[in-house]
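Fold it.
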Amino acid sequence: MSLEGLSPVRSGNVSARFSDGMLITPTAMAYSVMTADDVVFIDAEGAPQRGGRAPSSEWHFHLAIYGAKAEARAVVHCHSTSATALACARKSIPAFHYMVAVAGGQDIPLAPYATFGTPELAQAVVATLKDRRACLLANHGQIAFGETLEATLDLAREVEALAAQYIAVLQLGAVHILDDEEMGIVL
């Protein structure tokens, strides 16, 4: 994610459903130096393994997604430039392009702001992802989930590409939104 610019420096986090909980990247560790031994197991109750690294501060929303979405096997959260810019402007991504449907609906919604790492943010994320596989997080970044790590990373890449395209369209002026009927066909 760092090499692709999806998560600069030490930002963002990744998890995968595992056993009765999840495996998640540790807090504040660069991906380039991370090894399998650095990954943290957190059980379904939110208890991290003892003696290991501290989990990402965003473990709450990862665990909440797994609790709410049986189909979620992996979660990617990143601070990619374009998606984060839209999130900081508090703009969702409407159906300006049919590929917005990749997130599972007629838009890529924006979760309301809550402080990072809090149960409140986890609740906002789960509510926003009610019928979607990706969303933006107000003043924060983006999050996606899927059936595999690679598919989830691909979805995060697609959200970033759509965010960049949407910003470009906004700079041109009028945005033409596909209607519900067309998006229904696409979906």
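The first helix runs from residue 59 to 68.
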